[in-house]
Write a structure and sequence with these properties.
The complex is a heterodimer of chains A (about 325) and B (about 350). Chain A is α/β, with parallel strands linked by helices. Helices cover about 30% and strands about 20% of the residues of chain A. In chain A, the strands form two sheets. In chain A, strands 6-7-8-3-9-10-11 form a seven-stranded mixed β-sheet, with helices on both faces. In chain A, strands 2-1-4-5 form a four-stranded antiparallel β-sheet. The longest helix of chain A has 18 residues, at about 185-205. Chain A is globular, with a radius of gyration of 21 Å. Chain B is globular, with a radius of gyration of 22 Å. The chains are: A alpha/beta (about 325), B alpha/beta (about 350). The interface of A and B includes residues 260, 268, 269 and 273 of A. Chain B: It is found in: Cell inner membrane.
């Protein structure tokens, strides 16, 4: 089966003092219909930049310098700005972290949903409003016929995020990209919104990309996962594979640094020393080498960049299979 | 051993009264009758969602804001009601670390000046303060040479280390930490949590650790208090609270945390509260959790006296009586629920 959405060797950069600074490098990943791919990483890992680049939304002077972004086989990066704008919203929807900034405070919630519909479809105001009410019901806003005339400030954070999800799915996209959709929400509300996203994916058969820093959210929601570090995908596989036996030292370290609610008492956390490299000063070789517990000069960690090669569960690491990496 | 901190019947109301043109303004009961104690060297974790009043409580304890009612005693002395001078004399012993390592440090001051400020403000000679700054930087894992740098030259984790160095500069007995790691990435967060543990082990400082992350709170706390709409609804030793929660809100919270284990995540039953946290400006009658409480609905369905409320039939006590924090289960386990044994 072909992927609903696929990135091939995506590389994006901004101009720097000493030439182009690569924000993301050679990112390849794919997601199929009905499936959720989680993209995990810390701040600055490039997880958001990857998708803003792919959708032509990377702020200037950033630009894509290589790669393809295939939406059902069509390369978005080759489209005119107008054609790309029409694909966004219609065939690929997006939901971002902050439900406050995504809505215009001076327009009614229903008007904002209707505007999305009318920008793409030849329908009357009245019909757009009816569809807006149906969409609010679809994302489980209670009393949608009345709430459609409310302003965003009359909605709680969780309900605003539902409205943004309603706008993102309004035109029946084949792919939904959700960037930290529940990070600003409280944990009980987060659970409700994740349930909703899962239900919508299943009902519509959408492909979903879930960008998150939370491995708990990945375990709960995703089928496959791509772990990013310093602008690259460093490990990829099914959620079951990666969580059962992570292969990249960065992924292994991430698991060891999470304070789990069910960890045995007295468990000590093993933080990762230092912080991720500045994109302009990434080390030669593996970008994780300066922080890696298994770093080895003999294996080439400081001299050659490790790459992902095939498919399935794999890690971009020179030390795969080394004893230090065993669970 | 007498408690380091004693909080009794603390309340904070905001708003109320009438606006300029006579419209009644809603009164927000942000903290609505809270009592607890904290022992020397102990960490009490305070968890709750947005609007629970946990940050307001942290500020009330240090009297950074004035309470509407209730009292706070620290090392046997009154904190509430004393003069500004008396409060100032206590300040070195009670400090605060804020969430935002970006907003809480003055961008025009060097790290050294930021850390030295509380010491010189309390009469320490500059040379002595400078020597202490170097020592403190070392204790929080930064190099003494970094004293000359400005906040923007540091990463988020490093800035939080500076905030911690400043808070412990005067050897406090209590530090209130308000979401100290929630702005940090998980790998850096673990560094800061370990640093706090190390500082506590060495100095015997007590922490009031405010956070929304239940995993983090479990990791750092000896005891945990769960807040909901201005009240502590459950308070217990850490393992009792996480192992056998008694309040249905705590049960829901723990059930909602996604855990990094796909097999368990997909198979466990979820207990969902209904809807979202209410408003402290319009508190429900009786138990403030009743409109969202899954347990009240289960108990009502089994029989007993019920009344119509929040679109359901609920047990009469849940709707009419405000439950007090009372012993439930093991010793030192308190819950404010009319049906604490239903768990």
């Amino acid at each position: 089966m072909t992927a609903a959405f696929e990135l091939r060797g995506l590389t994006a950069a901004v101009p720097g003092e000493k030439g182009a600074v690569r924000l993301v490098e050679e990112v390849s990943l794919h997601v199929r219909a009905g499936e959720t791919l989680a993209v995990v990483g810390e701040s600055g890992s490039g997880k958001t930049v990857t998708f803003t680049s792919a959708l032509g939304l990377l702020p200037k002077p950033g630009r894509v310098i290589a790669g393809e972004a295939l939406l059902e086989g069509e390369d978005l990066l080759k489209l005119s700005p107008e054609a790309l704008r029409r694909r966004r919203g219609a065939r690929i929807g997006m939901v971002f972290q902050d439900p406050l900034t995504g809505l215009n405070p001076v327009f009614r919630v229903g008007e904002q949903i209707a505007e999305v519909l009318r920008a793409h479809l030849p329908i009357s105001r009245r019909e757009a409003r009816e569809r807006a009410v149906a969409l609010l019901a679809r994302v489980q806003i209670p009393d949608p016929a009345r709430r459609v005339d409310d302003y965003p400030h009359q909605f709680s954070g969780g309900m605003r995020q539902r409205v943004l999800i309603a706008m993102a799915i309004a035109l029946g996209p084949r792919v939904l990209i959700a960037d930290e959709p529940t990070t600003a929400l409280d944990v009980t509300v987060q659970a409700q919104v994740l349930d909703l996203l899962g239900d919508l994916r299943d009902a519509e058969g959408m492909a979903m990309v879930l960008i998150t820093h939370d491995l708990g959210v990945v375990a709960r929601q995703a089928d496959r996962v791509a772990v990013m570090y310093a602008g690259r995908v460093v490990e990829t596989g099914t959620v079951a594979e990666v969580f059962a036996a992570p292969r990249h030292p960065y992924t292994i370290s991430l698991f060891r640094s999470i304070p789990d609610v069910e960890a045995p008492a007295g468990t000590t956390l093993a933080p990762i020393a230092g912080s991720p490299p500045d994109p302009a000063r990434r080390p030669v070789g593996c970008a994780f080498a300066p922080r890696c517990f298994a770093v080895s000069d003999a294996a080439g960690c400081r001299s050659a960049r490790p790459l992902l090669i095939g498919a399935g569960h794999e890690a971009a690491c020179h030390r795969q299979g080394a004893a230090e990496l065993a669970a | 051993m007498s408690a380091l901190l004693e909080v009794e019947g603390l309340r904070k109301r905001f708003g109320g009264g009438r606006a300029l043109f006579g419209a009644a303004r809603p009164e927000v009961r942000a903290v609505d009758g809270i009592s607890f104690t904290l022992a020397r060297g102990e960490t009490l974790g305070l968890v709750g969602e947005t609007g629970s009043g946990k940050s307001t409580l942290g500020r009330l304890v240090l009297r950074l804001i004035e309470p509407s009612e209730g009292r706070v005693r620290f090392e046997g002395q009154e904190v509430t009601g004393v003069s500004a001078a008396a409060l100032r004399a206590m300040r070195p012993r009670m400090q605060m670390v804020f969430q935002d390592p970006y907003g809480s440090l003055d961008p025009r001051m060097t790290a050294g000046a930021i850390i030295a400020e509380p010491m010189t403000a309390h009469g320490m000679a500059r040379a002595e303060a400078a020597r202490r700054v170097a020592e403190l930087l070392g204790r929080v894992g930064l190099s003494p040479a970094m004293a000359a740098r400005y906040p923007h030259e540091f990463s988020g984790g490093q800035r939080q280390r500076i905030g911690i160095a400043r808070a412990i500069a005067l050897d406090p007995a209590l530090v209130v930490l308000d979401e100290p790691v929630s702005a940090l990435d998980v790998s850096v967060q673990a560094q800061i949590l370990n640093l706090l543990a190390e500082i506590q082990a060495r100095s015997g400082v007590a922490f009031l650790f405010i956070a929304h992350d239940l995993g983090v709170v479990r990791h750092v706390s000896d005891r945990v208090a769960v807040m909901y709409l201005g009240r502590i609804v459950e308070m217990a030793p850490r393992d009792a609270l996480y192992g056998a929660p008694r309040h249905p809100y705590t049960v829901s919270l723990l059930s909602a945390v996604p855990r990094p284990d796909p097999a368990k995540e997909r198979n466990r039953p979820r207990i969902r509260p209904i809807g979202e946290i209410g408003s402290a400006a319009a508190l429900p009658s009786g138990c403030r959790f009743h409109p969202r409480c899954p347990r009240a609905r289960i108990v009502a369905a089994r029989g007993g006296e019920t009344v119509e409320a929040a679109g359901a039939r609920l047990p009469r006590p849940c709707v009419e009586q405000d439950p007090l924090l009372a012993p439930a289960g093991e010793a030192a386990h308190l819950a404010a629920c009319h049906f604490p044994d239903e768990a």
